[in-house]
Specification:
14 strands, globular, DHBP synthase
Amino acid sequence: MLRKGTPPQSGVHRPGTRLLKTAGATGRTIADAAALIRDGRLVAFPTETVYGLGCDATNDAAVAAVFEAKGRPSFNPLIVHVATITAARELVAFDDRAEKLADEFWPGPLTFVLPRLTDCPVSLLAGAGLDTLAIRVPAHPVARALIEAADRPIAAPSANRSGAVSPTCAEHVAESLGDTVDLIIDDGPCAVGVESTVLDLTGDKPAILRPGGITGEEISMITGALAEAGDAATPRSPGQLESHYATQTPLRLNAIDAAPGEALLGFGRDLPDADFVENLSPSGNLKEAAANLFAMMRRLDALNPAGIAVSPIPQEGLGAAINDRLRRAAHG
């Protein structure tokens, strides 16, 4: 494993990390990694597809830290990794297609997009504020051991800077992310080497949002015909629609005050007065604001105010992603 704060060994060129090999999914490596996950820290770990940058999927701040570490320009939904089909059923609503596909391909490189349950504990930020979750059971023994030891779902995109080539060995992670990761578990190269197939099961026909380790032909043998790329019913990638993340209450962006009857979604100090206020970050911390965004939007929306006034958010760092989501929520 690679751990922050110690000298590098061969194959690792970033300061602040070192490389230790683990022969399997047991022992102190997994225990240490699981403790970090529970503490809200970031751990890179191997799966059969690529190395993932993992965090506690139920921890808003930890999920925001993943976006920050990757330099991810927008809050794309993250894939939530669980150890068993039973654990998946506790987070999302399975239908007959999901049951049959899980029986055939899980554990393995197939991700389902399914409706999240009303009591689902996964961070809204991990699902990009949507009512769906991307979820899978990885086949790699280290990944599954880590999830079981952490005793919670783990959200994990690929462990690289946004826009970089996906990592298939621990050295790739160290070169791309350096000491922004608290620990990197090294269990050699990934067997599949490409990301999981992402299959949307929320429509009448399943639709592949991202090709990967399981082919469309293999899936259609279980589900029947898939939605074609050109079909009007084919869903686009989550979070890419112009109008998305919409509240029932109208949003007014870049507001410097709150009108009578409006609630306020604030940012920073010296907020204007309003009957209902949620402050994304009193200190003006964009990482904290990102972690709070979707939950606070929903809380204010549930109050049924006349409108929601939103304080200006700096268009820098995670602020660009926050503003993107606010703009989509306010569209139309």
